[in-house]
Amino acid sequence: MSPAARGAVRPSVVIVGAGPRGTGILERIAANAPELYGDTPLDLHLVDPHPPGGGRIWRRDQSPLLWMNSTSEDVTMFTDESVELAGPVRPGPSLAEWARTVRAGGIPVAPDVAGAIAALGPQDFAGRRLQSAYLRWVYEDAVAALPPRVTVHEHRRTALRISGPRDGCQQVWLEGRPTPLRADLVVLALGHLESELSEGQRELSDFAARHGLTHLPPAFTADSDLSALRPGEPVLVRGFGLAFVDLMVLLTEGRGGTYTAGADGQLTYRPSGREPVLYVGSRRGVPYHSKIGYRPTGERPPLPRFFGPRQVDELLARPGGPDFRSDVWPLIDKELGFAHYHRLFTAHPERTRMHRPDFEEKYAAADPGSAALQALVAAAVPDPADRLDLDALDHPLDGVRYENGAALQEGLRGYIEADLARRHDPAHSPDLAVFLALLSVYGQLIRIGDRGPWWHGFFSYLASGPPGPRLRQLLALSRAGVVRFLGAGLTVTADEAHGVFRATGASVPGESVVARALVEARLPEPTVVHTRDRLLRALHAEGALATPAGLLAVDPADGRILDRAGRPHPRRFALGPHTDARAGGAFARPRTNAPAFRQNDASARALLTFLRDRAAPPVPVPALTPEDPHAADQ
């Protein structure tokens, strides 16, 4: 008997987190509800202190100088024919297509983004404000697509904890609200969260407090208070990824600096005089690789080939589960190599010395990383520059030493210039094939679970780097002396004797830099053990399983949260970077079988099926029936 027929309280789902991931779940509920749920009433509660669609990370009220790191044609929130899912494909526009419709008058937008949309081309990098407008439109489109008896309630609050038995309704307690939300099911789509300081970060923070220094721990850069970083003063920056790029922008253009382009296209930076001097280094000592600046053409590598569902099934069947380095990584190495050489043979055959079928047959037979495989590649690909060396890519400055800091600046500028040239030259299109293989690999890895922090960093370094224009700006800042490179193997210590932070690196032995300010340019680790989010910490304390890396363990089939006995909770789901099934992002490149879309669909279908087949009996918690069901709960 349906809940409505029993006269029960309306079924309800609480989605905690109304950013892109929460919006994606909502879109999949709308797509699957007609088949799985019919015309039965349902309340959907979206809980987030930030407006739905963009959420915190993609909210509108951040600097207009901050960009996405994907081109507008490579960003979508909608499924397509490539996505392997049980539910229906519900096509929709990419960011570029949406902007085109806006320009044609088909979609109204706020005046503050109209100018940016008018100038946006398919291969341009949109600002985050513009992406926020797109995400808000996607959210409103998903709400409009819901069946008539499904009602959405927005709660602009923070969720604090979940209570309730495994076999009964849940209660979600919100900050500033005396009564909880009743929930048949709860979905956590929390996105990136703040963390408590690690022991090392606490020591640095305490040192800074004792000596009147500035220490900015890992954080989302747009939320950091940068006012303590004073003009002209040196600032040590540890981290050379996307968080650094945001920091660089906010402390240069964000403080009034400007760029001019010469006849040769080279940028020159004109300081405002309000910038600090950024001394940046990291483990690798180089920035993330530039985004590739050309479109794919011709035959794509047939992926997956050596790391697909069959191989993952075999890995998961091993007693005790697979070890990433010894069991999983060799297959990934072979998969990336296959994509690289398939593209080299098909697009640039003049740079090979073997028939492709012969090469691929021998490549398939060779063990990953074996001497036989290396000999095969050497015989078939005469130029070492055309061979894929993942270790060299991951450690570009290993063994490289510079005479002094000035030589290091020249060397790093040359490295960045070479990277820009390569990533914008189709003659190196095997790089794009490796990028596509990385996306394929990430889609398979979500079934394996916790891979440790190295893989995510390696993926981001190769596949999720900054737009090319940002690296050209970095070169201009380096020539202007506003950014100074510290190289690889960066170590920062607290110099008690002198009351300063001291940075040393392996690239210029014997030299060090001191500063009264240190910025950790990276996001906090997404662990449930150290997160500042009270809800996640409470879940873990009450028995939710954390992986060795501290991620929330979930069932890869549908995202249900696992307890410490490995049992999926029947009523609690989690998706996103705080879980061991984290995908590459909540939105994706079109036609890449995006894992986030597959996860969203599986979770939406699981929750709709649960509500249809096993709706819980009512509990004595007041139902929420606001006069305007779509009004935000303020």
Short description:
It is built from 18 helices and 22 strands.
Molecular structure report:
The protein has 634 residues and is an alpha/beta fold. The protein folds into three domains: 3-55 and 138-194 and 526-622, 3-Layer(bba) Sandwich (FAD/NAD(P)-binding domain); 199-288 and 466-510, no CATH class; 309-389 and 418-463, no CATH class. The protein has 18 helices and 22 strands. It has helices at 3-6, 20-36, 95-103, 111-119, 128-145, 199-211, 242-251, 309-316, 324-347, 356-365, 371-380, 390-394, 405-423, 430-445, 453-463, 468-480, 534-541, 595-613, and strands spanning 12-16, 42-47, 67-71, 125-127, 150-155, 159-163, 170-174, 181-183, 185-188, 214-216, 234-238, 258-261, 267-270, 277-281, 483-487, 491-495, 500-504, 512-515, 517-520, 560-562, 568-574, 632-633. The strands form six sheets. The chain has a seven-stranded mixed sheet with strand order 20-21-9-1-2-5-22, with helices on one face. Strand 6 (159-163) and strand 7 (170-174) form a beta hairpin. Helix 13 runs antiparallel to helix 16 (468-480). The longest helix has 24 residues, at 324-347. The two termini are 35 Å apart. Residues 1-7 and 625-632 have low confidence and may be disordered. Residues 566-585 are annotated as: Disordered. This is Adenylate cyclase. Residues 14-192 form the FAD-dependent urate hydroxylase HpyO/Asp monooxygenase CreE-like FAD/NAD(P)-binding domain. It comes from Streptomyces albospinus. Pfam families: NAD_binding_9.
